[in-house]
Write a structure and sequence with these properties.
With about 260 residues, the chain is of the alpha+beta class. It is built from six helices and 16 strands. It has three domains: about 80 residues, Rossmann fold; about 100 residues, D-amino Acid Aminotransferase, Chain A, domain 1 (2-Layer Sandwich), CATH 3.30.470; about 45 residues, no CATH class.
Length: about 260
């Protein structure tokens, strides 16, 4: 059977996947949500946009976070075909806390002591701390507390550290540092005043070390820099936002295009 060059884009919104689709000289199927897929005899098949049949695809670009996407990512790894990002790296990072623990084995900035409280366990504290739960990498599911914390969810507990929250984004060989902002103690890339800033070379090197260890082509690490100048890794984002800043979208789009066209005549 002659293999048809068809790329599957998953997770991008219509303006973004159309931007990529219009620049590719191959067949493209695109889905904002997770499509139905099947791996059969080494071939990845994805449902057509009409849902009437299953289409063979030769490459996949995955750029999204969905509530139940771990099995989907695992199927991409099982398939073993060209996928961006590396699905094994995505598997290791999809669950937020296991990802953090893996990253702590490689970072220079892992001295922040962390605790854990299981569901409905009362965690008492005499200092201000932050409880984090769930598997969304979106700045949600976090709460500051003093004295006592109890939740229906299992939580990672960290000391609250005032300071500047920053993100190091790496796409291939390009990189940026972004100052995360917000109206409260919660800081985000989505704040209107979040902006590029000078790159801290130590944080860049640290992010590259973690990126290499996890095996992802695209990654974004969040750090806190305290008023005293100490630096601490907060989170690894395996599917970072690539649309907030035009410069990052252009770099991501071009990286995807170069990757998709690699090996084509």
């Amino acid at each position: 059977m002659i293999m048809v060059e068809r790329i599957c884009l998953v997770g991008l919104d219509e303006p973004e996947y159309t931007d990529i689709q219009n620049r590719l000289d191959m067949r493209v199927v695109a889905y904002e949500m997770l499509p139905q897929i099947m791996v059969k005899e080494g071939q990845l098949l994805v449902e057509s946009n009409s849902g009437a049949r299953m289409l063979p695809v030769s490459k996949v670009v995955f750029q999204g976070i969905f509530e139940d996407d771990l099995d989907f990512i695992t199927a991409l790894a099982l398939w073993g075909g060209p996928c961006l990002p590396n699905p094994r790296g995505m598997m290791d990072c999809r669950l937020k806390f296991p990802c953090l623990v893996r990253a702590l084995a490689h970072t220079r900035f892992g001295s922040l002591q962390r605790g854990y409280a299981g569901p409905r366990v009362s965690f008492e504290s005499q200092i201000e701390r932050v409880a984090k739960w769930g598997n969304w990498h979106c700045g949600e599911n976090k709460a500051r507390f003093t004295e006592t914390w109890q939740s229906e969810e299992a939580c990672i507990i960290e000391n609250f550290l005032p300071g500047q929250a920053v993100r190091i984004v790496i796409i291939g060989e390009q990189y940026w540092q972004i100052g995360l902002e917000g109206d409260s103690w919660l800081k985000s890339i989505h704040a209107s005043n979040a902006s590029f800033m000078a790159v801290d070379e130590e944080l860049l090197a640290d992010t590259r070390t973690i990126q290499k260890a996890i095996g992802l082509e695209i990654v974004a690490n969040d750090y806190i820099i305290t008023k005293e100048g100490s630096k601490h890794l907060l989170e690894v984002n395996h599917i970072p936002n690539v649309t907030r800043f035009p410069e990052i979208w252009e770099a991501y789009r071009n990286y995807v295009l170069a990757w998709a066209n690699d090996g084509l005549q």
